[in-house]
Amino acid sequence: MKRRVVELELEVTDWVEHLVAAEFGIAAFAINLIAALGALRAGPRVQGVGGGRSPLQVMRLYPRTEPAGLVYWCAPGHRTVLLTVWRTTRISETHESERARTALRECTAHPADDHRPWAEIVKRRIVEPGAAEMYQQASVAHAFGQHVYHLRRLHRLRRDELAAAADTTEDLVTRCESGGLMTTTPAAGRIASVLGCRHLLAQAPLAVPTPTAILLGDEDPTEVPPPVAFPGEDDRPAHQAPRRRRRLLPSRRSRERRTLRP
């Protein structure tokens, strides 16, 4: 998959530059994931902004205790522009959506030369102590979250049902599915136990990618580890009706026939 060239507006540039090295590693993985996905949406982690046919999308990430997001626009010329930082824990979603739309209007009104190239920032900051290591952990957390998301839907579980079974909160399940829960935490272990995927936690850690690999895109965020395809509702077109689940118990008519049999 050909990556897009990522550019940053001033708000996102300032936010990224104020992150400490470990937080930057998490943000760097999310931004490289945006570059790899383009206009595609990755499960619950990427959502549209404002509904309808809005060209804006937001990528969730958890560099700190509180969740955040990066609003971006897939521009012409195989470019992606990061417009604003999404903060709905303290600001209403309606207000953040309006801010993002305003940023898009301003972005289209000025030349692309006003943007900061992401390649320049990541080249300088990914070599800071702890940044590449946290980038690797974020990639593992993302892959685990994608597994949890698909398995939960495969088992027809709501997030609150999975949270209750794993003795955790619905917010933490959402965080897990969005790639924000490290696999070394007790909560990740309980979630994996409920879904029968503890083997994912026992896998050997991936090698820490080199700064050059991160910069050049050799470490593809969409393939670390390889994505898992689950048969079922996620494989059918959006317009296709869901298939009926196979009955695990004999039907009433079958039971009546057995009763009347001499």
Give a written overview of the molecule:
- By secondary structure, the protein is of the alpha+beta class.
- It is 45% helix and 12% strand.
- The protein is built from eleven helices and six strands.
- The chain has helices at residues 10-17, 21-37, 93-109, 118-125, 131-154, 159-165, 170-177, 186-195, 199-202, 211-216, 252-260, and strands spanning 5-8, 46-48, 56-61, 68-75, 79-86, 116-117.
- The chain has a six-stranded mixed beta sheet.
- α2 (21-37) packs across α5 (131-154) and α6 (159-165) crosses α7.
- The longest helix has 24 residues, at 131-154.
- The termini are far apart.
- Mean pLDDT is 80; it is low at 222-262.
- Residues 217-262 are annotated as: Disordered.
